[in-house]
Design goal:
The protein is an all-beta fold. It is built from no helices and 33 strands.
Length: 386
């Protein structure tokens, strides 16, 4: 997308085939902008088309968020150089119309913080934000495209100054995370109180922590140090408990930017970006345990017409058996797997496809998923056809 700036944008799925994208448009004076992406087809044959750009803030924005109220209604919090505001967006097809912006708070966003929000119910959102060494939250009431700010509540008990990640628990409560602390915010009208403070097991870097909801009582907490980290969080009443911290995603020279998407109740997709290094992992969830992460590695892309793969050679340079799944494209699911190998420790395995080659179409990726990417070498043999 022309003008999209890394680190200040957000993608939000509205339906299985449409996504709203909010971003700081560097090609248009960094104005706050939104557009709809439409997905057609599935798997490697899927295509994405974009609608027109729609400006919701005719001023340079620093960050843009998006909270789905319904498949046609989205709350957008955003930051400006000296204030923080929000606006409602109404979607019809790929057309976006906006209500009137309402200020969240007067004051520049503190440090690297940004306004975070979650829906409480179809007419209320809870917003957190940071202004000069103090964290606040406000309840916004929604009436169509009209927003009303219920006023600032100072966050007490966590000693923080930046915004707080949050996710809905009920229509009157939200699970919140700040640095290494988690707690519950309770809403009564426009008043917010805080309680149930617990030390989180993750080392959160620069408050980039996020909470992703799996179901009404189970959440994923994501944070980073020099590697992505995730843990399962369970909420029962005012009690918060944590599963194991999983950090088997490799180590980098600094804190990578991460994103988590829920694939199912037992599987999530984690993506990361640090400098010139990017990657994607499939993470399996069993109860309170995260385990067996499958890095997605693109092996090759089909030539001008197609590429015919006649054999695949895998060498396992580790002390344990490695599982390797091959798919067309870069999106993992069981139904997308076209070949599966098990390679013993310190051994190799060859998939002979001479009688039934894998056909990789022009521009289509052949990718591998393995639970030990640092110690597996995969070599494909075949012909590029043009």
């Amino acid at each position: 997308v022309t003008g999209a700036t890394n680190g200040v944008n957000q993608l939000l799925a509205l339906t299985p085939t449409s996504v709203i994208y909010t971003f700081n448009d560097s090609s248009n004076s960094s104005y706050g902008t939104a557009m709809i992406a439409t997905i057609s087809g599935t798997g490697a044959a899927a295509t994405v088309s974009f609608g027109s750009k729609y400006v919701f803030a005719s001023a340079a924005t620093t960050v843009c968020g998006a909270v789905m109220i319904s498949s046609t209604s989205v709350y957008i919090p955003y930051g400006l150089s000296a204030t923080q505001s929000s606006i409602m967006a109404t979607i019809t097809g790929t057309t976006i119309a906006f209500g009137t912006a309402v200020q969240i708070a007067g004051g520049a966003i503190y440090n690297s913080g940004y306004p975070c929000a979650c829906m409480l119910d179809s007419t209320h959102v809870l917003v957190t934000y940071g202004i000069t060494n103090t964290s606040y939250c406000s309840v916004f009431t929604i009436a169509g495209t009209v927003l009303t700010n219920g006023g600032a509540n100072t966050v007490t008990g966590c000693g923080g100054n930046n915004p707080i990640a949050l996710s809905q628990l009920t229509s009157t409560t939200a699970l919140c995370a700040f640095t290494n602390t988690m707690f519950i915010a309770t809403v009564s009208g426009n008043t917010v109180t805080f309680g149930g403070f617990f030390a989180a097991p993750l080392s959160i870097y620069n408050n980039t922590n996020s909470i992703i909801k799996l179901n009404s009582t189970t959440f994923i907490l994501e944070g980073t140090t020099t590697t992505p980290q995730i843990a399962i969080v369970s909420v029962s009443g005012s009690a918060v408990t944590f599963g194991n911290v999983y950090s088997g995603f490799g180590s980098y020279g600094g804190a990578p930017t991460c994103g988590v998407s829920v694939l199912s109740s037992t599987q999530i997709l984690l993506s990361y970006n640090y400098s010139t290094t990017q990657g994607t992992y499939i993470v399996n969830i069993s109860g309170m345990v995260c385990s067996v992460c499958y890095p997605i590695t693109q092996i090759l892309t089909g030539s001008a017409d197609h590429t015919e793969i006649s054999s695949v050679y895998c060498f396992n340079n580790s002390s344990s058996t490695v599982a390797v799944d091959l798919i067309l494209g870069t999106t993992y699911s069981d139904s997308a797997v076209i070949a599966r190998l098990s390679v013993s420790a310190w051994s190799s395995a060859t998939l002979n496809l001479a009688n039934c080659p894998i056909i990789v179409g022009a521009g289509v990726a052949l990718s591998a998923f393995t639970n030990n990417t640092n110690n597996v070498t995969i070599t494909c043999f075949g012909l590029n056809c043009s």
